[in-house]
Amino acid sequence: DSGVTQTPKHLITATGQRVTLRCSPRSGDLSVYWYQQSLDQGLQFLIQYYNGEERAKGNILERFSAQQFPDLHSELNLSSLELGDSALYFCASSSGVANTGELFFGEGSRLTVL
Amino acid sequence: GQSLEQPSEVTAVEGAIVQINCTYQTSGFYGLSWYQQHDGGAPTFLSYNALDGLEETGRFSSFLSRSDSYGYLLLQELQMKDSASYFCAVRDRNGGSQGNLIFGKGTKLSVKP
User: Fold this and answer.
1) What residues of chain A lie within 8 A of the CB of B110, using their CB?
2) Which residue of A54, A74, A105, A111 is the best one to mutate when testing the B interface, meaning the one whose CB has the most B CBs within 10 A?
3) How far apart are CA A47 and CA A57, in angstroms?
4) A60-71 tens-digit pLDDT
């Protein structure tokens, strides 16, 4: 158990809909990262937050947005969903203090768009 | 930009040794990380090399050569449970030492009996 909690674990929805994925980082971790993993693909970085502020953006679509709240949990919002958005979405966290190359990943939210 | 290259698939037999190579192109290099991911599971951290040389953790070892922009993960005494995907990763240069990780596409290791 990494200590990172993601909900929901599975989500099935239709094209054009909007969903929200939630992430609670490890206790004390200030940085939250969102990654997308499509079938048999690597981990594509979406966005990073540090202590409530956006820190870095990757290949995140304009239809997607995220935020980190004062209690440090984060939400990833996906709107106008398309079939190609079906993927595993991982949240990861780190302390943001020491660079050990280690991120702690949640179990992921598997999104299926029909 | 940054890029990492690793083989897409490797097959080995139980008890054998396998080496998974990773070459990278990046600036502002901080170190090379390795992650393991079982099918449908969460990536889990294996090792991190910031300096040249070999780091050993049990059956797994990781090597880095900064001058060659090259590293590898060495798995010894392979077990069936080692069948998984293995990813190398580097820090995004724009994120500094606490920035996000850029991952390679992963190497799928199949361990046969």
Assistant:
1) none
2) A105
3) 4
4) 999 999 999 999
